[in-house]
Amino acid sequence: MTAAPSLIPDSGRCKRLKAASSRDHDSVDQLVMAARPFESRERYGRFLQVQHRFHGSLLALYQDERLNLQLPGLLALSRFAAVEADLRDLGLPLPSPVQPVCASPAQALGWLYCSEGSNLGAAFLFKHTQRLGLAGDLGARHLAPHPDGRALHWREFVARLDGLLLDEREEAQVVAGAIAAFDSYRGHLREVFTDG
Ligand code: HEM
After folding, report:
1. What number is the average pLDDT over the span 95-105?
2. How far is CA 157 from the centre of its chain?
3. How far, in Å, is the centroid of ligand 1 from the Cα of 117?
4. Ligand 1 centroid to 25 CA: how many Å?
5. What is the per-residue pLDDT across 72-83, written as a single tens digit (0 to 9) for each?
6. Tens of pLDDT, residues 12-53
7. Is the CB of 29 under 6 A from ligand 1?
8. Boundaries of every domain in the chain
């Protein structure tokens, strides 16, 4: 008799995602800093365009009914509206909407892991925006911590993602989704900051 594929929550899922994407994370981190997004408001405006593309492409996932059942409260986590408010604060036009990401439900979980995890590094970016005279209610809303704190939000998200029942094929898709998300972020960065 063939054993049914095991469907179990995996308390190590996010840890494995972190390990599988750490090189991608480091290269994105280096590219962001090399783009000098906090050197001037003009450059920060370009960084907002990158964020607008990335978070805009994920909006449909944050709004997805099935994903909201798997990860309750997901909809409220999207930072897209805050990115738009930041652009308006700086008097910049809203870029045209980007193509939504095309991902299977399991890949979508990897994309969301990448997007939610980026809130941790945002603490560091948020500090830099202060040099530009920006704050959580002016131009840097999407980088500001949640009133309950970044760590609590992240721990809750990790617990939910780790708690999902996935089979082996889906597990591999989650990893592929996270890697694709970092790839896409790199692509947006390169396009927006292409002329230095
Ligand atoms: C200069 C830019 C960035 C810096 C300095 C930075 C820094 C950090 C730091 C310090 C952490 C916390 C690591 C830990 O507590 O173990 C982190 C986590 C993370 N960052 Fe970044 N980050 C940057 C950009 C990004 C971007 C653009 C993305 C996504 C597109 C991203 C995705 C993540 C993810 C997914 C995690 C969670 C890792 C985990 O614990 O599973 N980061 N980042």
Report:
1. 94
2. 12
3. 6
4. 6
5. 999 999 999 999
6. 999 999 999 999 999 999 999 999 999 999 999 999 999 999
7. yes
8. 13-22+37-192
CATH fold for the domain made of 13-22+37-192: Heme Oxygenase; Chain A (1.20.910)
The answer to whether the CB of 56 falls within 8 A of the CB of 97 is yes
Dihedral sign computed on CA atoms, order 49, 51, 54, 58: negative
Distance between Cα 121 and ligand 1 center (Å):
4
> Considering only CA atoms, which residue is closest to atom 32 of ligand 1?
118
**CA-to-CA distance for 134 and 115, rounded, in angstroms?**
22
On the CB side of 71, CA atoms within 13 Å amount to 28
121 lines ligand 1 (CB under 6 A): yes
Q: Do 111 and 54 form a contact (C-beta atoms < 8 A)?
A: no
157 lines ligand 1 (CB under 6 A): no
Q: Are 154 and 120 in contact (CB under 8 A)?
A: yes
Phi, psi of 167 (to 5 degrees): -95, 180
Q: Whose CA is nearest to atom 14 of ligand 1?
A: 120
